[in-house]
Design brief:
alpha/beta, three-stranded antiparallel sheet, Rossmann fold, six-stranded mixed sheet
Length: 183
């Protein structure tokens, strides 16, 4: 894909959630997390690259002590179908005895998030929670019934982009949540 193709996809896409709807969802998650995590001294792990925009906007709304680090594990790269998990960067902050919260753009099938959560547990995390901007509604979760502990928007099974989600490396910066026409 090139920039011209990316523009064509954007122009023909369906807007599913406006930028203001996304911001409201992030504010709601921040409120829920503040109630649930105050006094926990949690470690928040941003799952790169998709979780970057969500995490950046969420963290500034959390009004309690916390640590932040990131992890970069991917199954997609710039593709639209996942493959084997590739670790690009593991967290550098010690997790032993900590409550760890994974921050990501989407819980789709959950393979990547489940793998990162298992890694955190293996490093001694006391508890691992998941906060995602989008929880995709379908029955293909890696663990049946898998849900995020905190989520912003529930969206049907379409190919999404915007607010951190990409299509072949493009449109993470799109101002809202969009779906590719016909997918």
């Amino acid at each position: 894909m090139n920039g011209c193709e990316a523009v064509s996809i954007y122009e023909s896409s369906d807007l599913l959630a406006t930028e203001e709807e996304v911001r409201c969802a992030i504010r709601r998650i921040a409120g829920e997390m503040t109630l649930a995590l105050q006094g926990c001294d949690p470690l928040l792990l941003c799952c790169m690259t998709g979780g970057m925009i969500f995490a950046g906007q969420l963290i500034t709304q959390l009004h309690f002590p916390l640590q932040v680090d990131y992890v970069h594990a991917t199954r997609y790269g710039h593709e639209i179908h996942g493959s084997l998990l590739e670790w690009k960067m593991k967290p550098s902050v010690a997790m032993r005895g900590k409550t760890v919260v994974l921050l990501d753009d989407i819980l789709d099938e959950g393979v990547t998030l489940a793998s990162v959560a298992e890694y955190c547990r293996s490093m001694g995390a006391k508890r691992v929670l998941m906060a995602v901007l989008i929880e995709k509604l379908h029955l293909r979760k890696v663990t049946p019934g898998m849900r995020a502990d905190f989520f912003g928007l529930e969206i049907g099974d379409r190919f999404l982009f915007g607010y951190g989600l990409d299509i072949k490396g493009y449109w993470r910066n799109a101002p809202g949540i969009f779906a590719v026409k016909g997918r």
